[in-house]
Amino acid sequence: MGAGKKANNVAKTTKGKLKETTGKAVGNESLEIKGRGEQAAGDAKQTAQKAKDTLKH
Fold first, then answer.
1. Does 55 have pLDDT greater than 90?
2. CA atoms of 45 and 26, how far apart (whole Å)
3. pLDDT tens per residue across span 6-28
4. At a CB cut-off of 8 Å and minimum separation 6, what does 46 contact?
5. Which residue has the higher pLDDT, 56 or 13?
6. Phi-psi bin for 48: left (phi > 0), alpha (psi -120 to 50), beta?
7. 3-class DSSP assignment, residue 28
8. In terms of Cα–Cα distance, which of 54, 56, 36 is closest to 44?
9. CB within 8 Å of 31: residues ≥ 6 apart
10. For position 1, what pLDDT does the model report?
11. Angle between helix 3-26 and helix 29-56 axes, rounded to 10 deg
12. What pLDDT is recorded for position 44?
């Protein structure tokens, strides 16, 4: 996996986790849901990139 793409995917997942945690802490359900969505998107992109890398080798 390209280092830049991996870093972006991990950053997106981390950003989502931070939003989810903040949403829980302040009682903002919308922020919490947004955070979960970002985590899922980052994880999905990371999984897709890993699959591409596996097929290349």
1. no
2. 29
3. 888 899 999 999 999 999 999 99
4. 1, 6, 9, 10, 13
5. 13
6. alpha
7. coil
8. 36
9. 19, 20, 22, 23
10. 55
11. 160
12. 94
